[in-house]
Amino acid sequence: MMKTDILFSSPELCFSRSQKEAILAWGRALGAQDVPSLYKVEKFQSEALEAYGNPTKRIQTSSGHVFYQNSIHDHIAKQYAHPNVREHIKAYPVFNRGRVSEAFHASKWLTEAPVDVVTPMVRIGDQDFYVNELTYCKGDAWCIPIRFFEFEGDEMWAVCLKVEGSEVSWFTTRRRCCRARRSRVAGRR
Asked: Which residues are registered as beta bridge partners of 116?
């Protein structure tokens, strides 16, 4: 059933209803086992769309033109879920000492982009580090990462607020950059 659905749902191959019926009849005539009826294929497709959600929305303009639009959120989620594509996605700004050859090299992503639109966490080894979360670094240093970035596309760093303690409470002092490597960061507390 799944292979039949993939064939009939391919965006590159558009089959009419009579062509779909002919393909299924041809499969049965060749002696293939468990060839579904077109009714069962369409029922499976509608149930799958109901369970998964249809990312394609039908939109009609005021002039009467009809077009279909896919959800950008769904598309990005699928790109991140695909292991061969994910490794090529740049999720962090890159500090490249003033050289800009890609959009993620621009200093706007590092300094001006709102905190709620940049990547909120980084995974280093088996540890996760989050923005706005108190983090303990080696050398008895505490900091609160504000945003993460790659230094020249190699190591993960963070723009942080350095935190110092007093007898009464914790308070933050100044901004600084710290390396977010596993060897420097002892862990989350």
From this structure: none
